[in-house]
């Protein structure tokens, strides 16, 4: 497909894949860090809120498209490690495979190599996003329309809403009575950009996503702090176009852990359900009431509980 990245670049990739119905199986090995001093430009370009994407090994990419394209749009989903696709992607006849030109270091002892090897008999390449010397970027074009949600989008068990910036499909449209801080004063606890605001009286941050974003998830996790390092006096809410879920007060919750005046909170999504009077029971989110089902809930709010101004920073907001 053709698509725009979050930096305004139009990438024409409509007809570059060898076979749009073929698949390659890769192993996800690590997460691209937003803040990485030795490689600041590249990491901030690709890891701080651009399109959801994978860096796949060149040996996986070359089975999908010519490596000259560098970036392509893909659909992806999670499968068992021994999964064999119905139609396996292969390098077309007459196309020369990319060679691995990097030789082993001097005095390398292969008997001490503890890395997982390529699954040779399955034909599936094992991708490693940490092998930067032989990786190409494969951007994922994410669509959140209801009729595509099962096959396209963030299909992993963790959905990141904010991590150094708003992730694909999320926005803060609808926030009220807030003043955002400048970039120099709003760094997160491990270096990336946090979302820091001064909330006016009863003001709120409104994070919007797509329908079904909370469906079957169990936990909301985020880091929060006030300017003085205390726990903000805010309510957390989930809402839908048809109504609001149960509201939870942050100061009534115990932080999982703390770091550099930041507190990490984990909230059971079932606690937002009006029907669960005893609070969250750890079950998968199934909506808020008989009239508000799990598919309609698409908004997360952080609301100031009192009439005066209150400083608030949030960071690494995720659902799983």
From TrEMBL:
It comes from Volvox africanus. One of its GO terms (biological process) is plant-type cell wall organization. InterPro entries: Expansin, Expansin/allergen_DPBB_dom, RlpA-like_DPBB, RlpA-like_sf. SUPFAM superfamilies: Barwin-like endoglucanases (SSF50685). Residues 17-86 form the Expansin-like EG45 domain. This is Expansin-like EG45 domain-containing protein.
